Design the sequence.
């Protein structure tokens, strides 16, 4: 099922919806003490179609199954944090004049997952009870924010409910490198072994 040549978005949608509404997923069964993190990885070229698919799945889970979902969009969260700190407009100006590598470093410091993103997500989740969490907006914040560092810092934040990461790129296992996240299918890859590929879960 994870072989891209055998995949299409319609079959992915049916499978993802089936897993998300299942008792096994909702009760986080069969995790062997692992964190309840799941990844739906997809070709970046599918981004718009996947957004529509995610909206349909979200609506069906709510209307047909009575389930509640909290969606955390990393891009919207990052912009909100920068605006609250009063630096958003200044950063827009700096982007025009500063060296790209330096500008990225400045942003990475301001959006450090441990110091800034994870605490903001913790507050967001404390304010809203839900059956599951969707983590989105990953492609929009790459490479300023790397998915593996966010997930590592959310292991003690997203507890008591499963989380599905909507990941534009690949999440695959290789004999030499173990589990690798490759955002937007670019050359850089990050090791992260604790999440499960939702396409390999039973519906």
Sequence:
């Amino acid at each position: 099922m994870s072989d891209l040549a055998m995949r299409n978005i319609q079959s992915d949608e049916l499978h993802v919806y089936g897993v998300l509404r299942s008792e096994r997923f909702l009760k986080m069964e069969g995790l062997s003490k692992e964190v309840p993190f799941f990844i739906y990885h997809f070709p970046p070229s599918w981004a718009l179609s996947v957004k529509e698919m995610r909206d349909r799945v979200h609506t069906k889970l709510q209307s047909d199954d009575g389930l509640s979902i909290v969606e955390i969009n990393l891009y919207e969260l990052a912009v909100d944090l920068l605006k609250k700190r009063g630096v958003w407009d200044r950063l827009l100006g700096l982007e025009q004049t500063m060296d790209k590598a330096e500008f990225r470093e400045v942003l990475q410091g301001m959006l450090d997952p441990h110091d800034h993103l994870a605490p903001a997500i913790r507050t967001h989740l404390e304010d809203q009870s839900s059956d599951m969490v969707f983590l989105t907006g990953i492609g929009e914040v790459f490479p300023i924010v790397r998915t593996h560092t966010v997930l590592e810092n959310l292991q003690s934040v997203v507890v008591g409910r499963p989380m599905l990461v909507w990941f534009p790129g690949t999440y695959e296992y290789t004999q030499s490198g173990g589990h690798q996240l490759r955002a937007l299918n670019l050359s850089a890859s990050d090791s992260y072994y604790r999440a499960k590929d939702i396409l390999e879960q039973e519906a």
About this structure: The radius of gyration is 17 Å. DSSP finds nine helices and seven strands in the chain. Strands lie at 37-42, 69-73, 132-136, 163-174, 178-183, 190-191, 196-197. Residues 21 and 65 are 7 Å apart (CA to CA).
